[in-house]
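README: folding subset

This subset contains proteins for which both the sequence and a predicted structure token string are available. Records are stored as plain text. Below is the entry for Tc1-like transposase DDE domain-containing protein (321 residues), shown exactly as it appears on disk.
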Amino acid sequence: MKQTTCWSEARTSKENVQKRYEWVVKWNNTDMNFSRNCIFIDEADFDINMKSNRAWAPRGQMAVTTTSTTKAPSHTITSALSSVGVVNLSIRVPKQSPKVRKVQGDKYDQMRGFYFIMDDAPNHKQIEDTLNERNRDYKYVFLPPYSPELNPIEQFWALVKRKVRREKLQDTETLQDRIVDAANEVPMEHLRNIIQHSKNQKSSFWQWNDCKDVPDSKKANRIIDRGLKYNLRVKRKFAVVDTDSDSSLELPHRVSLSSNIAELSNANEKEVTFIKEYTANIVGRMNWNKCLTEGQSKGLFKRYSTGSSLRANFDRKHNHK
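--- output ---
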């Protein structure tokens, strides 16, 4: 049994899958590169009652955790992420004037010409307006609907929330401090890996368009992916031994199967003839174990180890004929 993951039906609909493919085709023809010139923006909600959904308990007892309040206020945290790390992490303050937002946010001159990638949430339209106000060649890109796999920051928030839920807040600790500490604890290598994962998802949509009309193509792709992952694991386990020889390996000799097949068919005919003669000469009930023993003494039935297997094979051939 595996832990289930709930997906909306719209996420796997043909219409939305087609939109993802069209989005990948459109932006692959530009200089947009997830690892070089992209900023990923998204929000996540936190509250002090966030707990892990797994805990230890004695056998026969429920795993129960307590919370300070039944319903706690939620804090919306906005983050900007890139391949060089977390660009910004802040609480979204409502009713903030546009002038204040512009003064506070306009301080990353080295990101001129970057692509700002976000989902199509309604509040992200404000970010679009803010980027249009600045003369820094900022480019905003909205993801197709129901496409979290194309936004690496979704995985980043999953890591942060897992760290926030790990332990109960201390008396001298605030939720904001815990969120900042959790974000800082995410290694740079993990950030690069989740961005690379989203880049790989873009490649998978190319494969989907090429194979969407081929029967059983999804199953074939899964088998190929498992084979590639297995090869990577094998490469990590075994070091490549370099030799000084430049000569290639000789091809093995071709083995003719016709002679083996002829020998096997002749042996089958002899075994069938022996069984028929044995059954014709016996008195009483057929003893397959004894028949097997006498036949093996004459060089027959080398493929069998029990009388029941000999009987089953003979009955199958006899009934087939």
